[in-house]
Amino acid sequence: MRRFKLFLDFEKEARWLNEMASEGYDLVGKSFGYRFRKSKPDNANIKIDYRLFKKQADFVDYYTLFEDSGWEHLAGTKSSGAQYFKKVSKDADEDIFSDIDSKAGRYKRLSQMYLSLAISYLPILVALVTTKAIHVEAFFNPKQLYFTPGLWDKAGADFWGAFLFETPFAFFRGFAWTAFPIMIALCLIFSYKAEQRYQKIKKS
Amino acid sequence: MKRDKHIPLTETVYYILLSLLEPAHGYLILQKVEELSYGQVRMAAGTLYGAIENLLKLKFIQPVESGDSRRKVYKITEMGKEILRLDLERMQHMIGITEESFKRGGIS
After folding, report:
1. A157 FRET partner, CA 20 to 30 A, in A127, A176, A194, B85?
2. Tens digits of per-residue pLDDT, A64-84?
């Protein structure tokens, strides 16, 4: 089973995953959404860390430390960021963090990731603006986005047929670029929210 | 003399450095820290990983070759030993001065 959800709060996300486990859905992977496997309901203790790795060996060393300590690595890859662990040993502690700083630190890394993502979209936006690929006038005069010759002189079914056929193309021509500023804005908002959470946990 | 800005070390950092006088991988560090502190300091995996990363950056510890392909092994550096010694001296001074003051004040 696949589920799509977006969390900016690791505690909330872990709570949801524990609920899913109590209904018998075990997390087996997260790439394009969360992947679950049906099994028997289980009182799981799932915790989430956020880390990116440059080398595969660093990643293996990282999750091996958790597995040695009684936490099974459920999901996450070298460059996925979020790393999901489930407590499997009775002797393990109840959390994967033992101090406030490290518990907060994952929000700092999440915030930095969103910020660098926002920055990496910027050159694309700049390129679109400087190459005049963006038609701001199209907001006020969408007619110029239709290229069918004599479209506006047609009438009745003839007009509607041609108009509706071209509308999806015109829409992309005119507004596809808005995806970039929207992405940048979202990334900046997420980065800000993660930073806020970091500050809040550090102060607690 | 100006005091090193990393002094005083936190309790966890002190025990990690102390446990790395001998080479050890992550989980072994966790066990040694618990042992050295008589069970007073129990570190979790996520916290230790961050601490190791930080100590590597400060060059207080360094990775060493090992036969284990899954687990990295670390050892304290000369700089790490020096900082450990400085913190020991700081604590020795505190202990000495406290015992003296207690004796003078009749506190046992």
Report:
1. A176
2. 999 999 999 999 999 999 999
Q: Does A43 touch chain B (CB under 8 A)?
A: no
Positive or negative torsion for Cα A71, A75, A79, A80: negative
Q: Quick one: pLDDT band at residue B20, thresholds 50, 70, 90?
A: very high
Its CATH class, for the domain covering B11-105, is: mainly alpha
Q: Indicate yes or no: CB of A102 within 8 angstroms of CB of B30.
A: no
> In chain B, what residues touch A47 (CB-CB under 8 Å)?
46
Asked if A96 reaches chain B (Cβ–Cβ under 8 Å), the answer is yes
Find out whether A124 and A133 touch, Cβ atoms under 8 Å: no
Quickly list DSSP for A125-179.
Answer: HHHHHHTT---GGGGT-GGGG--STTGGG--HHHHHHHHHHHHHHHHHHHHGGGH
- Domain of A151 in residue numbering reads as 101-203
Answer whether B47 sits within 8 Å of A65, measured CB to CB. no
Residues of A in contact with B25 (CB under 8 A): 65
Q: Give the separation between CA B69 and CA A103, rounded to whole angstroms.
A: 28
Please check whether residues A82 and A107 belong to one and the same domain. Answer: no
* Structural domain count of chain A: 2
**The two structure tokens encoding residue B82:** 């020096």
User: Is the pLDDT confidence value at B26 over 60?
Assistant: yes
Which one of A98, A105, A106 has the shortest CB-CB distance to B43?
A98
- Could you say which DSSP state residue A23 is in? T
